[in-house]
Every structure is written in C-alpha cells, then in structure tokens.
Amino acid sequence: MAEQTPFAAVEFASNPEPRCPLVLLLDVSGSMAGAPIRELNDGLQSLQMDLLGDSLASQRVEVSIITFGGTVQTVTPFVTAAQFFPPTLVTSGDTPMGQAIRSGIEAVTERKKLYRQNGVHFYRPWIFLITDGGPTDYWKTAADQVKAGEQAKAFSFFSVGVESADFDVLSQISTLRVPLKMKGLNYRELFVWLSQSMRSVSQSQLGQEEQVKLASPLGWANP
Q1: Is the C-alpha dihedral spanning 124, 190, 72, 7 positive or negative?
Q2: According to a count of CB atoms within 10 Å of the terminal CB, is the N or C end of the chain lower?
Q3: Coil vs helix vs strand at 126
C-alpha cells in the first residue's frame, strides 16, 4: 500500500471529490461457463456505460473487481468510474467464496485508510457478491466478518444468487439484507440497477446514505 500512496496522492489531488467505493465479488467458477459468463461480461459493460452517463458519479464512484474461481484474484483495483474498463472474465475451478469475501472486506478497509491519509471524504462502501453456487472453502469466518462490519456500519453487503446458488448459505452470510435471486441471466438489468443505485448514493449528503431510496430490484430479481 505504501508504494501506491504517491500515485494515490496525485489522483486525489486532481480529483478531490468524495469517493463512493464499490467492490464486486464475482463468481467465475467452472459452472459459470457458456452463457452465464458471457452475460456477466456484458453486464459489466452496461455498468460502465451507465456510470459514465453521470458526470458526478464518474468522478465519485470507485469500482474494484475481485473474482473467485479456483483462486481469488483482484482483477480490477479501485479506479473511478471514469477510468473503469471492464475486464473480460473467464471461468475456472471451484468456488472459494469465503476467501473472496474476506478479500473484499480487506480491500475496503485498506481503501478507507488511504482516503483518510489523503484527506478524502467517502461514502460507506458497498460489497456486492454475485454467485451461481455455494462456497467450496470455509466461509463461516467470512460470515462473522460481514455481520461485524455491517453492525459497525463499516460497509454495506449485498448478495445475489443466480440459478443454482446455495441460498441457505447466502442467507447465513448476508443476514441484514435478504439475498436476492436473479431472474434468469439478467446481468445487464442488475448492473444498470446497481449503477443507478451508486449514482443515487454518490449524489447524497455524506453520512446520509441510509436515507437514499433505491429503485426496486424486482425488474431483474425475484422477491
């Protein structure tokens, strides 16, 4: 992190807007091969295009992508929406979801430290998990960390299950917000909703994020 600080200082000096961090935890395990991964990649393109349509959000919203499929990888470190170029994700391996969640929490923790070091104000981070399965590693520590982080208002955690996702486990990980079940492979609709939600949060008063009224997700999710 120390090596990144000089670069971050330049970035924050040129763009001192408050930051609205979003971590995407994306399942790219083998079961996502074919249509699911294609739709996921298309959805990321929709996220980029929608965020770029809002000049303020493009400076304030920061996106990071962490994938889990065989291994956990930070594919996209935090960048503003204006600098976000969606990667082309490929599938591989099993589903180390527990490790991915821990990595996401660590990422927002470190990012907030960097904001504070540079005097940059920020909104409560979002951690947004999307999976079509269940964890193949130990996940209960991650679930405890999610619960503790939510209670401390350190971040907001959301989870979305696709097709054969293990909703029993997801409901034990995401206890404050009921996991949502995607209708089919409506990734593009999901990411447009997510973009619009982040746009709304980024335009709100700092510290008043909980009062932002988000659009209903029922266009792409089942109740």
Answers
A1: negative
A2: C
A3: strand
